[in-house]
Inverse folding.
């Protein structure tokens, strides 16, 4: 196993309900360290750029609208196999299919307002991290 970094975003539905601390506690309890973190509000252009890979999908407009509807918390998580570990902690995208104890099973409202985003692979993580953070901002 290798130590890696992955991006996590706590989405507007979760920040509105003050769940940042509870979500972060799940990451830390699973052995991930938060090595960079910032709270921000994405502009439409930023959300469109971040989710550009989904531009042709029917849910793109709704996703951009949702991600700009309130503050998000972008963070870099570090740990052994951090990408896979984060995805395990998040649970399935559809909270109805997420395992008990996962973030989405506990906190998500529905498939769109599913509380968190996480990188799906190491190369994606590197791209997504650089979208939000300069190297000097990452402490781990």
């Amino acid at each position: 196993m290798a130590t890696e970094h992955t991006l996590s975003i706590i989405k507007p539905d979760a920040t509105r309900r003050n769940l940042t601390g509870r979500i972060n506690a799940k990451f830390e309890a699973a052995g991930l360290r938060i090595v960079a973190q910032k709270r921000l509000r994405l502009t439409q252009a930023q959300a469109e750029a971040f989710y550009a890979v989904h531009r042709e999908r029917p849910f793109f407009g709704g996703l951009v609208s949702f991600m700009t509807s309130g503050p998000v918390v972008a963070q870099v998580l570090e740990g052994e196999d951090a990408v896979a570990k984060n995805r395990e902690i998040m649970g399935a995208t559809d909270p109805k299919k997420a395992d008990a104890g996962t973030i989405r099973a506990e906190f998500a409202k529905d498939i769109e307002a599913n509380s968190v985003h996480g990188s799906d692979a190491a190369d994606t993580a590197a791209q997504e991290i650089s979208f939000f953070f300069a190297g000097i901002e990452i402490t781990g």
User: Anything to note?
Assistant: The chain has seven helices and four strands. The radius of gyration is 14 Å.
